[in-house]
């Protein structure tokens, strides 16, 4: 991504164009051009073709896009994933030790972010918190995506922050489980089978029915578009759903946990 971004920047300068000039000619947001040139956003094929034509690079940029690796490393808050999540028609999310971000109560999300090492600066923490909560807008869309969540039971039991934080989160989760677009299942601790021991992941279906995946770990995050890798994660998720409690039994578990407060 950085290499293609630098090639685009070099070709733009050679053509005597500023970032604003190129964005105006191609009818693309200037920030998008800047992000691509800095390697923060992937160069999409259609934009590469337009740049090749305007800058006279004779298909070089488009060829670079075609030969990008199928699995690329992105920062944790990957712009590509955020863009796709906003418009997804279906999303399946498996998590292990924390509640999925789309289902986090504000107090719980703040407590999770405050546990980051190295710690966020206050301004950075508030910005990251707002970004996380803003993503929950898809739950309230007029036509929301189909959302499926499988959460391992420890995520419900771990006390992140004060006890009141956990109460708020369990109530919020119970309310979210009633939404018609949401399917929430808990994988119980006593289950003898567990298809998700390799860690959390998210499956996403785009408006043009492409299936992709996103994974996170201690070392960062991965955007997965390779069909074979996505198929493997899809089969894992299907198995997790069979191993988890039903949606009704999962809501019953939440009710019992709330009753124990």
In short:
The protein is α/β, with parallel strands linked by helices. The protein has 12 helices and 7 strands.
Sum up the structure in keywords.
261 residues; alpha/beta; elongated; seven-stranded mixed sheet
Descriptive notes:
- This protein has 261 residues and is α/β, with parallel strands linked by helices.
- Helices cover 48% and strands 15% of the residues.
- The protein contains twelve helices and seven strands.
- The chain has a seven-stranded mixed beta sheet, with helices on both faces.
Write the layout of secondary structure elements.
Blueprint: H1 2-14, H2 19-26, H3 30-37, H4 45-55, H5 60-66, E1 71-74, H6 79-87, E2 90-95, H7 106-114, H8 122-134, E3 146-152, H9 154-157, H10 163-176, E4 182-187, E5 201-205, E6 211-217, E7 220-224, H11 227-243, H12 247-259
Parallel strand pairs: 2-3, 3-4
Antiparallel strand pairs: 1-7, 2-5, 5-6, 6-7
Helix pairs in contact: 2-3, 4-5, 7-8, 7-10, 10-12
């Amino acid at each position: 991504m950085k290499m293609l971004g630098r090639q685009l920047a070099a070709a733009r300068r050679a053509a005597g164009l500023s970032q604003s000039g190129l964005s105006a000619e191609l009818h693309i947001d200037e920030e998008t051009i800047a992000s691509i040139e800095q390697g923060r956003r992937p160069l999409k094929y259609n934009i590469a073709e337009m740049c090749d034509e305007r800058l006279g690079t004779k298909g070089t940029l488009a060829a670079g896009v075609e030969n990008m690796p199928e699995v690329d490393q992105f920062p944790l808050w990957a712009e590509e994933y955020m863009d796709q999540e906003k418009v997804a028609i279906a999303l399946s999310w498996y998590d292990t030790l924390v509640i999925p971000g789309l289902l986090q109560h504000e107090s719980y999300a703040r407590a999770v972010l405050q546990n980051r090492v190295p710690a966020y600066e206050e301004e950075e923490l508030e910005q990251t918190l707002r970004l996380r909560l803003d993503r929950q807008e898809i739950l309230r869309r007029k036509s929301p995506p189909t959302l499926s969540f499988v959460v391992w039971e420890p995520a419900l039991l771990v006390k992140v922050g004060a006890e009141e934080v956990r109460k708020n989160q369990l109530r919020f989760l119970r309310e979210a489980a009633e939404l018609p677009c949401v399917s929430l299942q808990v994988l119980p601790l006593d289950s003898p089978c567990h298809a998700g021991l390799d860690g959390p992941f998210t499956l996403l279906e785009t408006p043009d029915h492409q299936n992709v995946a996103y994974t996170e770990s201690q070392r960062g995050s991965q955007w997965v578009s390779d069909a074979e890798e996505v198929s493997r994660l899809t089969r894992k998720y299907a198995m997790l759903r069979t191993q988890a409690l039903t949606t009704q039994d999962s809501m019953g578990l939440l009710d019992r946990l709330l009753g124990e407060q």
